[in-house]
Amino acid sequence: MCGIIGYTGKKEAEEIMLDALEVLEYRGYDSAGIAVCGSDGGVQIRKCAGRVKDLRSLCERVKVSGACGIGHTRWATHGGVSDENAHPHMFGNVTVIHNGIIENYKRLIGKYDLQEKLQSQTDSEVVAAVLEHFYNGDPYAAIRKTVLKLKGTFALGIMFGDIPDTVFAVRNVSPIVIARAEEGSMMASDVTVLGQYSKEYFVLPEFHVAVLKKEGIELYDMSGEAVEPQWLTVSWDVNRSSKGGYPFYMEKEIMEQPEVIWETIEPRIKNGLPDLESDGIPDSLLKECSHICVVACGTAMHAGLVGKALMQSLVKMHMDVELASEFMYTDSLVDEKTLVIAISQSGETIDTLEALKYAKKNGAKTLAIVNVKGASIARESEHVIYTNAGPEIAVASTKAYTTQLAVLYLLTGRMAYVRGIFDEAKTKEFTAELMRVPAVMQEVLDRREEIHYIARSILNAKDVFMIGRGLDYSILLEGSLKLKEISYIHSEAYASGELKHGTIALITEDTPVVAVITQDKVQSKEFSNIKEVQSRGAEVILFMKESYRLDQDAAWDSVFKLPEMRDEFMVMPVSAALQLLAYYVSLDKGLDVDKPRNLAKVVTVE
Ligand code: M6R
Fold it and tell me: What is the reported pTM?
């Protein structure tokens, strides 16, 4: 959940690392630090609790110079947020940055008699101490021996004081990508920072040691054999990693949706039919399974819920959606007839990764829907479909979610076709409607100021309820998560019909209710449920299909009329509207929209 960077080359490392840490800050942002190896060989550290901007001012006050260094931005797990717990950690001759968790760090403290010798409360400093213990001039031997002692997850950047201008990297589970740039060699937690320096990169294989030098990169396996890296090409437009004139990444990412949804669907539609051949997805995978199970967390799990509604109503396929963090602990029933779909923007969420491994062990077929190319979940899965959302930097997921939905529509259409549920004409109609999504979403985005206006009515609310039925309920679960994570307003999504079984007791005139009505078959029931909350004094903010008629007797506070699609596609315009609602509430409250408190973009701890 932390961001790491390493650089060695011809330029000042401090400048490159501070810029990179600013980009990586979405991974964790409670403290930051850098270590620079100076021309005299000495390693100097600057670190502090706070944001990268605080580290930058510290570096301006206390200069540090050298062309090799490692840097870190932290999301605290072991040890509170403090200057001494910030990375890098130096122990003797060894300086370390770490992303992950060392589960056996307490045992290691005892074993190597470190109790009185550590400066911080972190598990990471223990790694530096164990490395120092094993170091006798041979860095590979020290790294190999140390890594064999560690239990847990780690992405480590290491510098040895007596080996100038060299950065070592090794990992288990937590990601590291490495690139060769004109100015030197770099490592980082993800490609977003490498894109501006190089188009070529490789994912450091687990339990391999990379040696970054000014002149180039070497890669070794644990037996010391040289290994050829598997180079990949950065396919993301570097401009997508910048704010592009918007005040926050979240707004930019919301606005990019029509374009990235198009980029996700267009290459996968041939002759008007969904076609997943270029992703290497055989039709047999979709034909032969008897049951689908999605494993995912947070927003990605909510995408799975929409997928479940589509698969069940259109393909008549049984589909479960499991919280990845619960999957292994509830004796989930999967077998060789089950297709397990892991959905993840980052491709690094540890719960989803572990759930996927569990499914494979139990014989299930596996398919990942991932945004970040080459990420762990993509590599662990037998099959992968990449969403082409480009880098998503804001902690609150937006375009990753709607491109995940786009892939789920493609899968639904293809599955219905190959299983003979849709004939060619019906499949083409379905695909044509999917191709309308970007334009319809654009209509909602173009009217964003209307939603901005509506957002003012919940600005001062302490609690908000969101109600809807069927697909409207699925999308409200996501809308509610968006609102709470970035505005800190307590929000609950409820299936409208369930409200009167208890929760309606909480509805008062101080509790705004957001209602969504887009499904013809439950339209009248939903209007009745709205009346129930209005009768108890609640102010209702309504998002509904533009063709629906409002009851003129009721007092309507805020209504947003949504451009129309077939019912099963209405989640797309609704999701854009609810994302904007959450965004404007957070913006108008003056909060840090992109970096909400306590959160991090990539969750690599269980
Ligand atoms: O990278 P992933 O899609 O696996 O992440 C899963 C969740 O952590 C993520 O969707 C989280 O819920 C978002 N912050 C929600 O906006």
Answer: 0.84
